[in-house]
Every structure is written in C-alpha cells, then in structure tokens.
Design a protein that fits this description.
single chain, 10 helices
Length: about 220
C-alpha cells in the first residue's frame, strides 16, 4: 500500500501539482471562479493572494473538477500506480488481488475510484476543455487526462474482474444512468453560460443562472467534490 501511495503521489505531483498548464486549464475549463455566486462557502477559494496550486483550497479544487465532469481527484494517479506495481510480475498481481480480497481499506479505495470513473464523462469534459483559450495547452492537458483515465479504468476493471464499470454494483450503475439525462443538459447550459462569461459578459442574471447550474449539477451527481 505504501509503494502504491508513493508512486501515485509522485505521478500526481509531476503531472498535476508541478505542471503550470494544469492550473490554467482548471481555471478556464471549470466553473471554479464562479463558485462564489453559489454562496455556500464561508472562506475564499484561495488561502491568500498566491496564484499557485498550493494556494488553492481542497474543496473548490474537487468541486471544480466534479462540476466539469472530469472528476479528476477521484482517480488520477491510481492507474499509474496500479499498472507500475502489477508490471513487477505475477507475485505483485497476486498481492493486489489479495489486498482487494482481504484488506477492507484497499477494497474501499478501489470501489471509490471505480465510482469516480463511472461518474466522470469525458465527452462532456471535452466541451468544458473547449473553454480553454490556448489550444495547444488545452490539447496537452486534456490528452494527458484522457490517457490516465483510460489507464485507471483498465487497471480497475482488470483488478475487479469486470468488463465494465460498476458491473458488480447494478444499483449504483442504474442510479447514475437514470440521473445523467437530467444532469447532462445542465452541463451543456453551464458550458454555454461560462463561454459568455469568458467573453466578458457580466451581469446579475448571468451569474444567477450560473449559480443555478452549479447547484443543479452538484445535486444531480450527488457529489460536490
């Protein structure tokens, strides 16, 4: 577990925390800056006037990725760590399976990652990515996220012996499937409103509508971050 944790953290640090492209992507491709209109927090999104990732509070970081359907904090780095560990050989693969079967903490971790993967929707996330003004930056970051998403999905399915996400949890799978048709239009509306906001439009009605989409998406996905 310690080896997996260290590998996942190192990969996350390299690809996310120490990558200046990701913070810019996050600020433009999520409604992070618009969370203030919802008026649900008692503290500002940043700890001080700094502009780095370390200055950003954890809740708006998770909330922004959830709203934009990336759900990145739930899965990023897990696939890298599992894949690297499993490549050690059959002994390591057996160790992972034994942990899943006998170590409740690891079992719970993997199933939470699976839920995050299931709630993510990269086709909609791609629409949010379109809000990033720098095309080259957008493609670099989004491509990197898709690569790790797919790797994590493959690793989780292989470890759990499934052919699709939540195959062994049909109740949750059905719940997500039934909610998405109501949440997806809110995401499309939010992207359109954010585009207007990014283009310089700023009035009370626009901000109110953005707040309504944020509330609606959070309620529909049943996770804030």
């Amino acid at each position: 577990m310690e080896a997996l944790s260290q590998d996942a953290f190192a990969f996350y640090r390299e690809m996310i925390a120490d990558n200046p492209d990701v913070l810019r992507y996050f600020e433009e491709a999520t409604p992070f800056k618009e969370l203030e209109y919802v008026r649900i927090g008692s503290r500002p999104a940043r700890r001080d006037q700094g502009r780095g990732l370390d200055d950003l509070r954890a809740i708006p970081w998770g909330f922004g990725w959830m709203q934009s359907r990336h759900v990145l904090p739930a899965w990023f780095g897990v696939g890298f760590a599992l894949d690297r560990f499993a490549r050690g050989g059959r002994k390591e693969e057996r160790s992972l399976q034994q942990m899943l079967d006998q170590f409740p903490l690891f079992d719970d971790l993997i199933h939470n990652v699976e839920m995050g993967l299931a709630k993510a929707d990269l086709s909609i996330a791609r629409l949010y990515a379109g809000l990033v003004a720098d095309e080259s930056l957008r493609e670099r970051v989004f491509g990197m996220l898709v690569e790790e998403f797919e790797r994590t999905k493959r690793a989780v399915l292989r470890l759990t012996g499934q052919t699709r996400l939540l195959e062994k949890n049909p109740v949750l799978a059905r719940s997500i499937r039934l909610r998405n048709p109501y949440v997806d239009p809110l995401s499309l509306i939010q992207v359109a409103l954010l585009r207007r906001k990014r283009d310089g439009e700023d009035d009370v009605n626009l901000n109110y509508a953005l707040a309504a989409t944020i509330n609606g998406i959070a309620a529909g996905l049943r996770n804030t971050g």
